[in-house]
Amino acid sequence: MLFFSYFKDLVGREVTVELKNDLAIRGTLHSVDQYLNIKLENTRVVDQDKYPHMLSVRNCFIRGSVVRYVQLPPEGVDVELLHDATRREARGG
Amino acid sequence: MALGLREISGEPVIDSENGEELMRVQPGVDIALSNLPRESPGTLYITTKQVIWVSDVDKSKGYAVDFLSISLHAVSRDPEAYPTPCLYTQIETEADDEINSDNSDSESNYVHDLSNIREMRLIPSDPMQLDTLFQVFCECAELNPDPNAEEQEEEHDWIFSADQMEDEEAEEEDYMSHNPTNTLGHSNGHHDLARTILELQINDQRFEDAEEIEHDEKDTHH
Fold first, then answer.
1. Whole-number Å distance between alpha carbons of B54 and B60
2. Beta-carbon count within 10 A of B190 CB
3. Is residue B103 classed as helix, strand or coil in its secondary structure?
4. Which of B149, B158, B172 sits opposite A89 (nearest CB)?
5. CA-nearest residue of chain A to B218?
6. What pLDDT shows up at residue B177?
7. Fold (CATH) for B5-144
8. Domain containing A76: what range?
9. ipTM for the complex?
10. What is the pLDDT of residues B70-105, one digit of tens each?
11. Pick from B141, B187, B220: which is nearest to A63 by CB?
12. Looking at the complex, does the CB of residue A39 fall below 8 Å from at least one CB of chain B?
């Protein structure tokens, strides 16, 4: 649940979602749900030479189970907050 | 669980005994699989479990794919990406799994070519329908979380039931704007921990430093 809460704070920011099939899509985070399904707006494919047919789509729904990484905007990373939260999660209580 | 696109013949079969419901029927939709030519108009059936397309010309011809296999869907209006506005989908296939697990000698070698279809475009004759179709796809995709993910959730006790989560979410909205640190604590369902820490910080005057840390944190988060 840590990441669900965390990603919700990032709504409206630019993120890059890397899929397990190596496709990387950049866009504005529109919403995220508890399964980490991700909706992006104004998306574009990072490696356009490799995936020319997906040049740009306006909105895009990505299934949580196919996401490998989410690259966050540096200014959206609060290291102290994450340290704190991950420690609590690791304690399991 | 069978991944990928499959061929069907005849009218769509809906497994209502297992809770499958028809969400939308959209006539006048063309389909294009991977880079294959676009196929003549058909009817699109969206259920709570799967997407079914049946040709209008030849009713015995059709395709179906489970939402579990749809990795992503998007509205594509860029003429450079595809000449006509369409709903673009990516499909996870059994072949993908095999690349990962590297057991290429399994029986799937003689499976129909459809197992290699990783992209499907749905082209409604009325492009105004695209946003609605996108929304219906979103709703249905959310109804079909990964079965493996749920198993994992049951193994670990820090994930709670969907009912609890709704309550937590409502609470969370209130906290979100005030104190993101507490939000994370509460989202894990650890009210007691959050309270204990709070009381510790307020009541225990012996640790002057602790208070300073608390102030520092506040500064960082606002």
1. 8
2. 19
3. coil
4. B158
5. A81
6. 46
7. PH-domain like (2.30.29)
8. 2-91
9. 0.86
10. 999 999 988 888 899 999 999 998 876 555 444 444
11. B141
12. yes
Any residues with CB less than 8 A from the CB of A82 and at least 6 apart, and which?
A6
* Residue whose structure tokens are 């005849």: B10
By DSSP bridging, strand A24-32 and strand B5-8 are unpaired
Contact A81 B181 (CB under 8 A): yes
As a whole number of angstroms, the distance between CA B46 and CA B29 comes to: 12
Q: Where are the domains of chain B?
A: 5-144, 154-221
pLDDT per position as a tens digit, B13-43: 999 999 999 999 999 999 999 989 999 899 9
CATH number at A71 reads 2.30.30.100
Q: How many domains would you assign to chain A?
A: 1
Average pLDDT of the residues in B129-133: 95
Residues of A in contact with B214 (CB under 8 A): none
* Inter-chain CB proximity A19 and B71 less than 8 Å: yes
Nearest CB partner across the interface for A66, out of B80, B92, B184? B92
